[in-house]
Amino acid sequence: MRPLCRTNILFGSTRMLISFVVPVYNNAADFVGCLQSLQPLLDEGIADVVAVDDGSDMPLVVDSEGVVVLHMPHRGVAAARNAGLLAATGDFVWFVDADDSIDTDGIDLLVDDLKKMPDDVPFFHIGRMATVKRAGKYEECGDPDGSRTEDCVPLNLLRPRCSIVDHTTNIVRRTWLQEHGDLRYPEGMSLLEDTVFSLRVIEAAGRCFANSTYRFYRHHIYRASATAGAWSAERSRRFTVDICRFFGFLGEYCKKHNAEAIMAFYERYRYVYLRVVAVKGCPTDDLKRVLDCLGPLRRCPRWVYMVFAFMCRLFRCRK
């Protein structure tokens, strides 16, 4: 295995407040947009960027001050984020994806919150994320009076669409995360690895600082969405393993904490991914494996789900 190497180490000795860790794999064009959105933070000396090229066919090249590029063999997004964490130098680490854009209108409020966080609080949680403008205008970015310390596990922050388990909504203290060597993205998973990581961080943290009024707008190209494009048989098998691995972890997590919010979260995820594997046209054997992992269905008989999945595959074949 060829060693990890880095290029474009251009910052001075001043430690940054935030290190953005961005994995890149054959999507350098997306990363250009991401970097452009972060540029004001780099220019102000608030942040730097650790871009991890996960063995792209064309090696990532960035000529920009404040950006470190790590080159590594292709090992998946989880391994890339873990490598980026080790290379980060900021007080806080913010994991984002190459096809994300961070709107910086409310960054002053965010910086103030990060600076006033108690030293014993490991991470800051951004309350809301969105993907679109409304009526051509951004909503307010945040309320400084809305900042507060939450006791963990802050299960009251679990929400149907944008919750505390979305790793892009959590900014983690770098030294705390590096001291906890077990808090890493599970390598080998290419689906739901970010949720596993976030739940482990929440569990270990004890407390978090949160502002539920923040709205940082991001454009995210979600290529693995529930409806766009079928999965090949090979991809279906790989993701079936990840889904079963995730629900095994989540089931144990639910038993450990026995909280109503976690159980509701489990049920929501269960039916979301049952729908995903159906509409993606997954083979029957993979569907059965996921069903066996998740157990009896409460909302409909198993045969009804199998008929639904069959109709999805039939529709895709005719399409």
Structure description:
There is one protein chain. The protein has 319 residues and is of the alpha/beta class. The chain folds into two domains: 5-217, Spore Coat Polysaccharide Biosynthesis Protein SpsA, Chain A; 233-318, no CATH class. It is 40% helix and 18% strand. The chain has nine helices and nine strands. It has helices spanning 28-43, 77-87, 107-116, 174-179, 193-205, 233-257, 260-279, 284-294, 302-318; strands at 5-7, 18-24, 47-54, 67-72, 92-95, 123-130, 147-151, 170-173, 207-217. A nine-stranded mixed β-sheet has the order 1-4-3-2-5-8-6-9-7, with helices on both faces. Helix 6 (233-257) packs parallel to helix 8 and helix 7 (260-279) runs parallel beside helix 9. It is globular, with a radius of gyration of 20 Å.
Span from first to last CA? 43 Å
Quaternary organisation of the protein chains: single chain
Radius of gyration: 20 Å
The fraction of residues assigned to DSSP E strands is 15-25%
In spatial order, strands of the major sheet run 1-4-3-2-5-8-6-9-7
Q: Uncertain runs with pLDDT below 50, 5 residues or more?
A: 1-13
Could you spell the SSE succession in H and E letters? EEHEEHEHEEEHHEHHHH
Overall mean pLDDT score? 82
CATH topology of the largest domain: Spore Coat Polysaccharide Biosynthesis Protein SpsA, Chain A
Quick one: CATH class of the largest domain?
Alpha Beta
Break the fold down into its secondary structure elements and pairings.
Elements: E1 5-7, E2 18-24, H1 28-43, E3 47-54, E4 67-72, H2 77-87, E5 92-95, H3 107-116, E6 123-130, E7 147-151, E8 170-173, H4 174-179, H5 193-205, E9 207-217, H6 233-257, H7 260-279, H8 284-294, H9 302-318
Parallel strand pairs: 2-3, 2-5, 3-4, 6-9
Antiparallel strand pairs: 1-4, 5-8, 6-8, 7-9
Helix pairs in contact: 6-7, 6-8, 7-8, 7-9
